[in-house]
Write a structure and sequence with these properties.
about 20% strand, Rossmann fold
Length: about 140
Amino acid sequence: MTAMSVSRSAARRRVLCVDDNPDVLELQKCILEHSGYEVLLASNGADGISLAKGRKVDLALLDYEMPLMMGTEVAQRLRDMQPALPIIFVSGSDLPQEAAMVADCCVSKTKMGKALVQEVDRLLSRRRPGRRGTTH
């Protein structure tokens, strides 16, 4: 499967993307929609949490470092609403150990194409929450 093909796990799956950088959000949206996912966008943690309250979300893709509310806080609040929600942190820098404790995996912003889609596919195709803390 390539980053540009529609995967089976993408069918009708909704991904919430939260990032304070509008260019990153647009790139995530293009990549994920092209791979068959429905994408919800939020430019900050509070908006992301509000979107998740109003709709079923299958996976959250969160920037780790954002103003007002860090990705770890957003992740914890989302997990309070949906305990089994898969969460991926996306970051342009190395993440502290606490991030690996909260997210299912971390993806570098420099690897936003194929690696991102592979991780989304992997997390959405598994039946049970797995071990957290993988980095790609």
